[in-house]
Amino acid sequence: MALNKSMHPRNRYKDKPPDFAHLAAKYPDFQQHVHTSLTGRPVVNFKEPEAVRALTCTLLKEDFGLTIEIPLERLIPTVPLRLNYIHWVEDLIDGQKQPRRGIDIGTGASCIYPLLGATMNGWYFLATEVDDICFDYATKNVEQNNLSDLIKVVKVPQKTLLMDALKEETEIVYDFCMCNPPFFANQLEAKGVNSRNSRRPPPSSVNTGGVTEIMAEGGELEFVKRIIHDSLQLKKRLRWYSCMLGKKCSLTPLKEELRKQGVPKVTHTEFYQGRTMRWALAWSFYDDVIVPSPPNKKRKLEKTRKPLSFTLPQAGLKELQAKASAINGSARNPVDSVTVLVEKNLTDLRVLYKHVPCRKQQQSLFVTAVENTWIHGRQKRREHKRQLRELPRAPHCATISSQSTAATAVLATNPPSQNQLSPTQNTQDDGAQDKTAEESNGASSNEMSLEVMHNTIGEEKEEDVTGENMDMQSSTCTEDAASEPPSKRPLSPSAVEHFLFKCLLNVMLEESDVVVEMHWVEGQNKDLMNQLCTYLKNTLLKSVAKS
């Protein structure tokens, strides 16, 4: 589960992510959904609805003592994200543990907000639901956790939000309302068509939920406007109105709508959970409420600076050190060994780098990528091998030697004819002609030998550019290539004017593992750095797996 440091400070999962191995050993129903990754760590496939449901039910049981049931065809909530919302509501109502009353609009089959609020804080909840299946499951989940005295689940007509739910309770003042509006306006949006930036990666988790849970006329924007319309009539029947948004673009028009309606107190926040991000909006008609401050720019800046990283576990470091020693015998420790292998991969990809000062037990490289050479690498290697099979040839240095010798032999046995000599040479005596022929023969032989060598070294340089035949070159040929003029040598990272991106790559030791981090500096597209990071990760982990 991808969590990060930007979660709510009181979220129990902020600094202590769920231990999948421990949970799998304790709960058999969850164990079947836990697999071992290439790094040897337990992972869960969040694209499988059964796995997401098993994790949610396991966390609620382990950390809150709650036993719930959720049908696969209805929305399956993630616990850490729902906790963020609960803690923010605590901030809105001053975080006091005294009995509070709240409304959950569209509680869903899990009834997760009322269950968490009642269990953690002793809050009273009115939970509304329009879907028959969700209503039945929510009622059952409340009853089997013995929380019927704190949570009342009510079935309301379609399109009802707050007004009809409060008709029978005219004297009660609620402290807050919560709501997860249906995010999408239609089926195309729900499938991600025209609703997602094309440059963003696809969602990392499966999208579950019934029609009423994920879709509404006009999407979440119109749905929340209906809540605003109800609040303008109810006003101080609730101290705080709130909702969670799935799209950042919905936040600004909703705040503008509240401003137009003259709502005096408005605030918002952001919820983080790995790659998942949500926005929450709250407003009040009370003058004495304390309004929490919105997220500041410093917090956003810290999020954008978060590096890409991957871990090489201790179990595979011995194999990597052995491979690194074969390349560079001076690599004495795991950090140096991983750095040597990273450098080799960067060299093969023609990615420029240079060492920069860093702290102890760490290696740092300033990386400059000039061209994208890490995409479709396997296809290129296969194509190159196919060409080598179809056009076999001798090693480069042997070719130079054999072709030069052959050229000399041909010229020695077939000297130039008289017709090939210049008019002045035809007028010379026999001795002069013999001497001239001998000189011409030697000169032609040298010229052909140089030409053959030039062509062969040219072919060698072309293969160097592909980065696929480094291991086929002899030491003599390598020395010839190394003697090329400075104008032909690769530029240093600082001398490159046009580039795809620049980043700082750190290799460091964390406990017994080695961690590789890539910090963005500048460039055209951060996705390119992500691709390179994935390439390096897969290459190093596959080396361990093959060993």
From TrEMBL:
<keyword id="KW-0489">Methyltransferase</keyword>
<feature type="binding site">
    <location>
        <position position="180"/>
    </location>
    <ligand>
        <name>S-adenosyl-L-methionine</name>
    </ligand>
</feature>
<feature type="region of interest" description="Disordered">
    <location>
        <begin position="377"/>
        <end position="401"/>
    </location>
</feature>
<feature type="compositionally biased region" description="Basic residues">
    <location>
        <begin position="377"/>
        <end position="387"/>
    </location>
</feature>
<keyword id="KW-0808">Transferase</keyword>
<dbReference type="GO" id="GO:0120048">
    <property type="term" value="F:U6 snRNA (adenine-(43)-N(6))-methyltransferase activity"/>
</dbReference>
<keyword id="KW-0539">Nucleus</keyword>
<dbReference type="GO" id="GO:0009896">
    <property type="term" value="P:positive regulation of catabolic process"/>
</dbReference>
<dbReference type="GO" id="GO:0003723">
    <property type="term" value="F:RNA binding"/>
</dbReference>
<feature type="binding site">
    <location>
        <position position="106"/>
    </location>
    <ligand>
        <name>S-adenosyl-L-methionine</name>
    </ligand>
</feature>
<feature type="region of interest" description="Disordered">
    <location>
        <begin position="414"/>
        <end position="491"/>
    </location>
</feature>
<dbReference type="InterPro" id="IPR010286">
    <property type="entry name" value="METTL16/RlmF"/>
</dbReference>
<dbReference type="GO" id="GO:0006397">
    <property type="term" value="P:mRNA processing"/>
</dbReference>
<dbReference type="GO" id="GO:0043488">
    <property type="term" value="P:regulation of mRNA stability"/>
</dbReference>
<dbReference type="Pfam" id="PF05971">
    <property type="entry name" value="Methyltransf_10"/>
</dbReference>
<dbReference type="GO" id="GO:0070475">
    <property type="term" value="P:rRNA base methylation"/>
</dbReference>
<dbReference type="InterPro" id="IPR017182">
    <property type="entry name" value="METTL16/PsiM"/>
</dbReference>
<feature type="binding site">
    <location>
        <position position="129"/>
    </location>
    <ligand>
        <name>S-adenosyl-L-methionine</name>
    </ligand>
</feature>
<comment type="function">
    <text>RNA N6-methyltransferase that methylates adenosine residues at the N(6) position of a subset of RNAs and is involved in S-adenosyl-L-methionine homeostasis by regulating expression of MAT2A transcripts. Able to N6-methylate a subset of mRNAs and U6 small nuclear RNAs (U6 snRNAs). In contrast to the METTL3-METTL14 heterodimer, only able to methylate a limited number of RNAs: requires both a 5'UACAGAGAA-3' nonamer sequence and a specific RNA structure.</text>
</comment>
<feature type="binding site">
    <location>
        <position position="82"/>
    </location>
    <ligand>
        <name>S-adenosyl-L-methionine</name>
    </ligand>
</feature>
<dbReference type="GO" id="GO:0005737">
    <property type="term" value="C:cytoplasm"/>
</dbReference>
<protein>
    <recommendedName>
        <fullName>U6 small nuclear RNA (adenine-(43)-N(6))-methyltransferase</fullName>
        <ecNumber>2.1.1.-</ecNumber>
    </recommendedName>
</protein>
<keyword id="KW-0949">S-adenosyl-L-methionine</keyword>
<keyword id="KW-0963">Cytoplasm</keyword>
<feature type="compositionally biased region" description="Polar residues">
    <location>
        <begin position="414"/>
        <end position="430"/>
    </location>
</feature>
<feature type="compositionally biased region" description="Polar residues">
    <location>
        <begin position="439"/>
        <end position="448"/>
    </location>
</feature>
<dbReference type="GO" id="GO:0005634">
    <property type="term" value="C:nucleus"/>
</dbReference>
<keyword id="KW-0694">RNA-binding</keyword>
<comment type="similarity">
    <text>Belongs to the methyltransferase superfamily. METTL16/RlmF family.</text>
</comment>
<dbReference type="GO" id="GO:0051254">
    <property type="term" value="P:positive regulation of RNA metabolic process"/>
</dbReference>
<dbReference type="GO" id="GO:0001734">
    <property type="term" value="F:mRNA m(6)A methyltransferase activity"/>
</dbReference>
<dbReference type="InterPro" id="IPR029063">
    <property type="entry name" value="SAM-dependent_MTases_sf"/>
</dbReference>
